[in-house]
């Protein structure tokens, strides 16, 4: 008979017992902590992107609305990839709302309607905060686990491209400045 583990209610800091853990490479604390930082910011970016997506108004609404969906999808898929990599390394990802709110480096998105041009600035700032976190932990991750670093490279490529796409909406050519 297999014993089941129940999550205490309300769910909080109580941890469940580890059972039948696989063998193999176990992420050292610094690697676990680094990947957790990235995970938190990716989850926050997903939420910030949706907040902007739902509440933008103004010029070029439709294009920005659709582009925000792309950022949200990248952040959602990347957070899942990072969390699953953590599990493969015998680390426990923590994406609870209270953890994300407390640990994210992203600035808070304004409440209510946001003009598209202001939303562009807000979302570029959020994407850049996320990529800064990835770059901050990169060398530590690469030293401990090059495979995890490769995952971070892929995420950086996608997010930095989106930052460029969105920021181009309000930029002026250098010669016109």
What this model shows, in words?
The protein is mainly alpha-helical and 177 residues long. The protein has one domain (27-166): Up-down Bundle (Ferritin), CATH 1.20.1260.10. Helix content is 64%, strand content 2%. The chain is built from 5 helices and 2 strands. A two-stranded parallel ribbon has the order 1-2. Helix 1 packs across helix 3 (97-103). The protein is globular, with a radius of gyration of 19 Å. The N and C termini lie far apart (73 Å). The mean pLDDT is 90.
Structural class: mainly alpha
* CATH H-level superfamily: Ferritin, core subunit, four-helix bundle
* Oligomer description: single chain
Mean pLDDT: 90
DSSP strand content? under 5%
Low-confidence parts lasting 5 or more residues at pLDDT below 50? none
And the CATH topology?
A: Ferritin
CATH class: Mainly Alpha
**Can you give the helix content as a percent range?**
55-70%
Number of strands: 2
Radius of gyration: 19 Å
The helix-strand sequence is HEHHEHH
CATH architectural arrangement: Up-down Bundle
Ends: how far apart? Answer: 73 Å
- Neighbour order of strands in the largest sheet: 1-2
> DSSP helix count?
5
Largest sheet: 2 strands, parallel
Shape: globular
Summarize the structure.
Helices cover 64% and strands 2% of the residues. By secondary structure, it is mainly α. It has a two-stranded parallel sheet.
How are the secondary structure elements laid out?
Blueprint: H1 29-55, E1 56-57, H2 61-88, H3 97-103, E2 114-115, H4 116-144, H5 146-167
Helix pairs in contact: 1-2, 1-3, 1-4, 2-5, 4-5
